[in-house]
Amino acid sequence: MNLIMLDEILIFVALGTLAGLLAGMFGIGGGLIIVPVLIGTFISLGFDSEIVVHLAIGTAISCIIFTGLSSANAHRAKKSIDFDHFKPVATGIIFGALAGALFAVQIDGSFLKLSIAIFVLLVGIQILFDIKISSKKIYPKKSESIFAGSIIGFLSSILGIGGGTFSVPYFRASGLRLTTSIGTSAACGVPIAVFGTLGYIIAGINVNGLPNFSLGYVYLPALLGVSITSMVSAKYGADLAHYLSQTTLRRLMAMWFFIISTYMFLV
Predict the structure, then answer these.
(1) Beta strands of 143-238 (E only): which ranges?
(2) How far is the CA of 136 from the CAs of 108, 158, 168, in angstroms?
């Protein structure tokens, strides 16, 4: 494939719009939305099946760089980032996210896809039944926060997500208020995305079978199309959320994840 086809561009623009709307409506990062849809898109475009899953994850996490920066800046403006808690966790994330990407590309794509499908299913169940993820209050030392950050970065990089699923409960357990936990978690999404992306680029530099316009395991047309449109549409998703009840939003979000999970099991 030497040229980017018009229908390919339209697919990524539509995906970015959908990801932004859903992220804005449900208050989640786009990774859990983008990864499954990119896998299906790359398969339909005829990309090598051996690299499709890794390419989708690497591309998805690169998209989070832009949405993450936008989200983190919004939370910074509202003074909802606790930098004392952020710094040691972010230090661990740098190493964890890089290691996670390098580890993920060693895993068979089918097993990785199954792992993501199970994770999405569990998240859907947690949302549908409004299961609260909590733990007893902790008082982590700097070294413990660095270790926690490395685990958060490692898992997030493998799954292609911004890490809020893991970091928000951790910051809550560390004694931060919910709004500050969310804001600090949003800030953590930036180093996860940056160093996760770096890992997927490094791991894919000399890999055969990658499509043109790829930088390692990052497919640039999808990165641009998804990032630009998702950042624009997220605002409208947030506006739409105010017209729906929390119960309706929760059910719609769970339904979306069940559909995505089923698709991932079958594709």
Answers:
(1) 214-215, 218-219
(2) 36, 27, 14
